[in-house]
Write a structure and sequence with these properties.
Layout (H helix, E strand, L loop, with lengths): L3 E6 L2 E6 L10 H16 L5 E6 L3 E3 L4 H6 L2 H20 L4 E5 L2 E3 L1 H7 L3 E5 L3 E3 L13 H9 L1 H10 L3 E2 H6 L5 E3 L4 H13 L3 H15 L3 H15 L3 H11 L10
The structure holds octanoyl-coenzyme A.
């Protein structure tokens, strides 16, 4: 069975982490699977939104700790490096990625969630960077993305204590977009995917680029970057259609270019 399963249905790429016996811990095959997903989304223009979730009681409980103890330092290091690259490429994809967090999102699992564009959490979900308890530190953006999302001091506290926080607390900190009843998680993810799918794919791509790339720049550079993308957004037939539809008081009919 593949560590990461995926299927495309009606413009949505449904991805499931599938090592429930190890709480979907990240090993070499897992990273290979996530790489396949990113490549698939990049090469198949029919994909408009990606949804990631986990099988069983975890979204992902982080790196496979057994891999750290059993395989060579080289394998562990190359796996972490590849995961880091894949997450950056996922942030850079043209299409948004929704994380539907069904349970534990710890260590590398929390890091994967943070590299997604939107995080919807089941009320059963929990988040944390427990690496400190193993005598190591986060290695796939945990100290960096977390500080930018929840703030410097809270990220410091979470990484220093390894404390696990509930979905509600993660929502309060701005780490999660919304918390929903466990049984409604996938319906909510689907609803969000449908909303995004109804928009102009070109404008969706530009929003994603403006927010994600701009987030990594200083404010002034980010504003200038946004201005360039704003100008670019007018060059698409979707802009013509969106504006015309508003004037004609009808729903816009956006198409993928
Ligand atoms: N790696 C390997 N196996 C795991 C992991 C893991 N991270 N987490 C759970 N498992 C296994 C357990 O060993 C157990 O297996 P078995 O049944 O064979 O004993 C099975 O999954 C079920 O787990 P538990 O019995 O422990 O389930 P509980 O509900 O009692 O506890 C917890 C759930 C709290 C999530 C607990 O399993 C736990 O603390 N897991 C470890 C979490 C952790 O420390 N994560 C951080 C890992 S380090 C990391 O992520 C660094 C990221 C760097 C980038 C990634 C690069 C690859």
């Amino acid at each position: 069975m593949a560590a990461v399963e995926y299927r495309e249905e009606d413009g949505v790429l449904w991805v499931k982490f599938n090592r429930p016996e190890a709480l979907n811990a990240i090993n070499k095959d897992f990273v290979k699977g996530l790489r396949e997903v990113v490549d698939y989304a990049r090469n198949n223009k029919t994909v408009r939104v990606i949804v990631l979730t986990g099988e069983g009681k975890a979204f992902c409980a982080g790196a496979d700790i057994k891999m750290f103890s059993e395989s060579s330092h080289f394998v562990a290091r190359s796996t972490i490096e590849e995961l880091g690259k894949v997450l950056e490429e996922m942030e850079d994809l043209e299409v948004p990625v929704i994380a539907a967090i069904n349970g534990f999102a710890l260590g590398g699992g929390c890091e994967i969630a943070m590299a997604c564009d939107i995080i919807i959490a089941s009320e059963r979900a929990s988040f944390g960077q427990p690496e400190i308890n193993l005598g190591i530190i986060p290695g796939a953006g945990g100290t960096q993305r977390l500080a930018r999302i929840v703030g410097w001091k809270k990220a410091m506290e979470l990484c220093l204590t390894g404390e696990r926080i509930s979905a509600e607390e993660a929502y309060r900190l701005g780490l999660v977009n919304k918390v929903v009843e466990h049984d409604k998680l996938m319906d909510e993810a689907k609803k969000m995917a449908e909303v995004i799918k109804s928009k102009s794919p070109y404008a969706v791509m530009l929003v994603k680029q403006a927010v994600n790339r701009g987030f990594k720049m200083g404010l002034r550079d980010g504003i200038m970057y946004e201005r360039d993308l704003f100008a670019l957004s007018f060059s698409s037939p979707d802009a013509e259609e969106g504006i015309k539809a508003f004037v004609e008081k009808r729903k816009a009919d956006f198409r993928r270019e």
